[in-house]
Write a structure and sequence with these properties.
Elements: H1 2-21, H2 26-35, H3 38-57, H4 69-79, H5 82-100, E1 108-111, H6 114-130, H7 133-152, H8 164-174, H9 177-195, E2 203-206, H10 212-225, H11 228-245, E3 249-251, E4 255-257, H12 259-268, H13 272-290, E5 298-302, H14 304-328, H15 334-339, H16 345-348, H17 359-366, H18 370-381, E6 385-389, H19 390-397, H20 399-414, E7 416-419, H21 420-431, H22 436-440, H23 444-453, H24 455-469, E8 471-474, H25 475-485, H26 491-506, H27 509-526, H28 530-558, H29 560-574, H30 577-633, H31 642-650
Antiparallel strand pairs: 1-8, 2-7, 3-4, 5-6
Amino acid sequence: MLGALFVCLALIFALAFRVNNTLLEPEFVKSQLRDGDVYNYLHDEVLPAALDEIGENASDTPVDLTLLKDDITLAAREIFPPAWLQQQSELTIDETLSYLTGDEDSFEITIPLSDRVEAARDALKQTVTDGVTLDVVYDEVLLREAIESVGNLNDLPLGIALTETEVESALEQIVEREWLRGEIVGAADEVVPYFTGQREEFAVVIDVASRVVPAQRVLKEILKEADTRQFLFDEMIDPQIEEVVGLGMALPFGITLTSQEVQDSVREVLPRQWVDQRIDDTVDQIVAFLTNQDESFNLTVPFEDRKTEAVRVVGELADRKLAETYASLPLCTAQQLAQMNVGSLAATGLECRIPFLTIEQIQQQAGVVINSHAEAFIDERLPDSWQFTEEDLREHVGSERWESIVQVREWLTSGYIYTSSDLREDLAKSDFTGDDDAWNTLGDATRLLYIENSEKVRNLDRVRGWMANGLSFSSNDLERKLQEDTESFDFARFDVARRGLGLVRDFSFLGWVFLIALLGLAGFLGGRTLSGKLTWAAVFLGIAGLVIYVAAGPVYEAVPGSMLREGINEALADSDGVNKVVLAKVTEVTLNASDDFVSGIKFQGLLFLAVGLALLAATGVQALVLRRGRRLEEPVPVEVSPTTYAQDVLE
């Protein structure tokens, strides 16, 4: 009975002691992770698989992350190198297991992040310098956004219409990649001290002014390719002519030149070279205004050099229209000729064509030359230059675009500045229920209150705290988290169980003492002699060892081990993507740990069996030695022949 009890308890104790020496020991857990090469596997297999899955499933991401897979993987290895991951993981395992097993009454894990943020900055610099990150962001984000923005603007000013190739060329010249690389590096250097707690504010300044000259050059090229003549006439020349001519220019002989006819005539005298020069002047004036070289926008378009030609062309138009009108009239009748006064025709107008007089002769007799009248009229009223003022520009672009122009002017003067205050306000605005106009109408005090109470701003402060002081988690945090997430959780009972486990581990040696005592008692009661008692103890120990070995060997492989492997294979078959990659490593570590766990139990069984057999052999040898010794001590009987006996009797 005691022998059977010993065998059962030996199996239970072998399992319990193996659990205590493996799963509850930090060194065993850490060694399994190290042997499984988990920390390198995260970078080499898990992260690339995750990026592939994100790239396949996330159609709304601004960048195809698969294009950045090499850069992201390299950066991740620089930011969180395997050695750092291993160090932090092992410290966490030491702290948590020591607490859960009752060896310590509390724990506090602090993962330093400030150096990781600085490593992230260095990794960003490296990827934008040596990797493809900058090119991918430039081509996939900036260029695409520029093309879409231009495509959405159906009413670009100055008759501008750009193809995708032209947009790309313009962007490459204005936003050079090397300039953008330098701005990104500068921004990273400015922002990192803010997040690591070294500074309470940051101000990223983008040197937009340095791009004015290339932008000016590109803008001139675009405008020269566009239909800017139409802009000049629509916004400057035509309005002036309409103001001068009105509904029409009344000339002698009943001839009227319409405003459109005069406009068309003026356009004839403005060659492409003159228009291109006006474009250059316009762009230069715009740049001077945007860069605050001029306090206000006031574009002057000189016309004096073309005015003489315009006057001449209008005069020719009047001559031509008079000749055409005269040629289209019917011949004068005799009655009309009798009543006609040629000298007064300039005032009364032409009603018929005089057969024996040309229109030139009529003008001579009337003393009126129509082209002189037209030239004088236009020369007197057309200005020597046109003015396009700030008010005109504001009216032309509209109020919304004017606000953008004012913003651009500020950027070009002081640079585009984005501060920590802007970041906090943008985060608060994303939580605000109203639109931008409603936000802008808030008073300073109210807006500040919204910012301070914004959950996203609070999260920003939390993240900054983690990056500056490290990410901490303690036993107090665990208690609070468990009680928040599980209302029925009894932490006091959990604490008692944890302390009880620690107490059991501290006095686990008593289990061995109990087993040895039980084995001795079973042997003592089983045999009558010392040899017999030892023999029974050896038999019980050997049987226990054999049972333990069989349970951890064939029985485990046939039932629990087989079920474990089947479950793992099914899980692997049902998973895909990054889940399959992660599960493959979890499976490997789990199987290795289970093999180590079971092999330890098998070793204990073999040890019990070996000790039992050795003890049994020792008792057998001892029995043989004792039996042989007794035989040597007994008297040896002497054989006496009858003759000898007779002689002895006679004597």
